[in-house]
């Protein structure tokens, strides 16, 4: 019965592979030609290095068997010549050297030969060696082409990323410049700096100024989110005083909390006086979590921030509130960019749904995680865990 597997002794590739024999000994060339042709190879002959170069120019062989000593151009010079040409730089070369001649074996490898075989050689070993070298060359070729493909894909991705950053930088500038004029001049009008304004117009100026400021915040959030994608943002991690970060974060949300009628307290465990983190990003995480907690808590409620040491040596930030909570099936939505639990006209709270996913990205850039635990009507606790930096 015929085996469904390919015959291991005569692989199908052998039939298509061409072998160039370079030797000044016509009899040896002829014998080798017969043996290799019997194995299914397409055989080409050249009597020296110069003729071999011409053969390679005419048709690139899959493998070259080269005698070391030849007139006009010897085997070593031929090897070096072939390696210097882009077309033959990777074609496997089997050098035929004198028996036990260590110096010529070393010289063969140095000249760029892939392998050597000593004279007089066993024909069976020669054919096995050639088959093995061709198989290896095929595998190397596959690796080389996938490496080239990967490099091209990586270059394209990096170029796209650079283009995105550049685009964002330009957009940021282009959007902010006119917006600054809108905000600046509408504030001048609102405050009546150049003389009194009709109260109705003063109201309009206030609306323009507030809307402009809101738009500027949105632009900043979108830019921050885009910049926080992996690879686009380099963290500047250093030792930071936890109390400093906590105090400055609470300062930023103090007005928001006062307006919402929500109390805000903090507690830092004594064993976490300093941590390793990017201070600006850590503050942004705290501010985003605190402003959510305040925003989604009714007047009279409470928000608490706790920083604790983790068993692995890292630290955790917990932001707990007594607010409206999130049902379990909506937690994944809340973490999505632009994902908000209250949709459309039923929304009572301002925002575009970027604060939480941005906080999550910033924590993940530190190697950490964000987890939400919530009970609708009772409150929410968001935990950001930062692993120890070694
Ligand atoms: N502490 C919380 N309590 C209840 N719901 C929350 C809380 N934090 C987040 N959410 C829900 O998750 C959604 C997404 O939060 P996120 O901070 O990303 O957006 P946002 O606060 O609506 O807008 P932005 O932060 O961009 O101003 C919120 O709209 C809200 O529905
Ligand atoms: Mg938010």
Structure description:
The protein has three domains: 12-121, 3-Layer(aba) Sandwich (Rossmann fold), CATH 3.40.50; 156-227; 238-386, Histidine kinase-like ATPase, C-terminal domain (Heat Shock Protein 90), CATH 3.30.565.10. Helix 2 (26-38) links the parallel strand 1 (18-22) and strand 2. The protein is elongated and about 110 Å long. Strands 2-1-3-4-5 form a five-stranded parallel β-sheet, sandwiched between helices. The chain is built from eleven helices and twelve strands. It has helices at 12-16, 26-38, 49-58, 75-84, 102-111, 123-190, 199-227, 242-260, 279-295, 331-335, 355-365, and strands spanning 18-22, 42-46, 63-67, 93-98, 115-119, 238-241, 263-268, 274-277, 302-309, 315-321, 369-375, 379-386. The structure holds adenosine-5'-triphosphate and magnesium ion.
The CATH superfamily name of the largest domain is Histidine kinase-like ATPase, C-terminal domain
What would CATH call the architecture of the largest domain?
2-Layer Sandwich
Based on secondary structure, the structural category is alpha/beta
If you average the pLDDT, what whole number results? 88
Quaternary organization = single chain
Helix content: 40-55%
Q: Would you report the number of β strands?
A: 12
Radius of gyration from the alpha-carbon trace, in angstroms: 37 Å
Apparent shape: elongated
Q: First CA to last CA: what distance?
A: 63 Å
Bound molecules: adenosine-5'-triphosphate, magnesium ion
């Amino acid at each position: 019965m015929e085996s469904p597997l390919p015959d291991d002794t005569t692989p199908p590739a052998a039939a298509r592979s061409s072998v160039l024999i370079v030797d000044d000994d016509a009899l040896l060339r002829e014998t080798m030609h017969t043996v290799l042709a019997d194995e299914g190879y397409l055989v080409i002959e050249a009597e020296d290095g110069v003729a071999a170069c011409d053969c390679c120019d005419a048709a690139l062989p899959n493998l070259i068997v080269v005698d070391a000593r030849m007139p006009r151009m010897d085997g070593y010079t031929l090897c070096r010549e072939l390696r210097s040409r882009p077309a033959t730089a990777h074609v496997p070369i089997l050098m035929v050297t004198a028996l036990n001649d260590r110096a010529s074996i070393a010289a063969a490898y140095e000249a760029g030969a892939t392998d050597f075989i000593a004279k007089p050689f066993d024909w069976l070993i020669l054919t096995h060696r050639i088959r093995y070298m061709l198989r290896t060359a095929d595998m190397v070729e596959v690796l080389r082409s996938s490496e080239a493909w990967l490099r091209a894909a990586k270059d394209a991705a990096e170029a796209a990323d650079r283009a995105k950053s550049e685009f964002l930088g330009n957009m940021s500038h282009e959007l902010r410049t006119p917006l600054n004029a809108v905000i600046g001049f509408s504030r001048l009008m609102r405050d009546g700096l150049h003389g009194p304004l009709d109260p109705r117009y003063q109201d309009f100026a206030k609306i323009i100024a507030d809307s402009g400021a809101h738009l500027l915040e949105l632009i900043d959030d979108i830019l921050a989110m885009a910049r926080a994608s992996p690879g686009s943002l380099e963290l500047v991690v250093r030792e930071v005083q936890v109390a400093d970060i906590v105090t400055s974060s609470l300062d930023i949300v103090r007005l928001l909390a006062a307006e919402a009628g929500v109390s805000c307290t903090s507690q830092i465990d004594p064993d976490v006086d300093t941590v390793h983190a990017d201070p600006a990003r850590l503050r942004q995480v705290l501010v985003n979590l605190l402003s959510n907690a305040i925003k989604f808590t009714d007047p009279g409620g409470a928000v608490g921030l706790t920083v604790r040491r983790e068993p692995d040596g890292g630290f955790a930030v917990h932001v707990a509130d007594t607010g409206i909570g999130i049902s379990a099936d909506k937690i994944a939505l809340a973490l999505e960019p632009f994902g908000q639990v209250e949709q459309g006209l039923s929304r009572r709270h301002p925002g575009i749904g970027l604060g939480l996913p941005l906080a999550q990205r910033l924590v993940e850039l530190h190697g950490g995680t964000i987890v939400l635990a919530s009970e609708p009507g009772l409150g929410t606790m968001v935990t950001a865990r930062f692993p120890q930096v070694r």
